[in-house]
Amino acid sequence: MTNDAIFGAAARIEEMRNNQVKGNLVLSRRWFLAERGGPEAVNRVTSKLAPAALELLERTVMPFAWYPFGLLMDIDAAIASEVMGGNVTRMRDFGHDLGMRDIEGVYRVFLSVASPVFALSKVSALGSLYFRESTLAFISTGRVQGEVELVGRSMPLYMCQYGIVGWLTAVLEVAKATGIEVVHTSCVHEGAFRCRWHCDWAFSGRTVRSPSGPRFGS
Known about the structure:
alpha+beta; H-NOX domain
């Protein structure tokens, strides 16, 4: 299987690009560049973008309107290259920070009084804040563990392997979980039918681990 280092399996790129995302994801990229990059980083990123992606990054965007996912992928690839120095693993922190920002804005009070299991059971509703034809499904496997599965269109490699790991960690943190470990255990870019993540966290101050199968990439 031929993989792009950022987007993943070449055979899935068109499928991913034809998805749509809500404008809040575009706006979060603007926030990241302004807060974490600065003017020089913004200039480097914009210099890498084709006209359509550049227009999306700079024009007026409505938070709950739909926009092409493919253009957001192009923006993210430029961020990975020009702000993260080509280190795609930094997309984990990127996903975590953006997740904390979004969740704190809308769902913080709701999730902060919920158990981690309840919070993860709502990831499908949270996912609707972002993607038109993709969402996440949670399967509880115990009081301190669970599985999350991607349903619908695939996500690019940088997002499923790193960004969503960070985002799920943020959901658990807002729900006051500790000892959090999120592992990407199954990936469509390695031939799996669906992407899947295993989540562990602590209960009553004690971290409990359970077998989660082989780690992705091991």
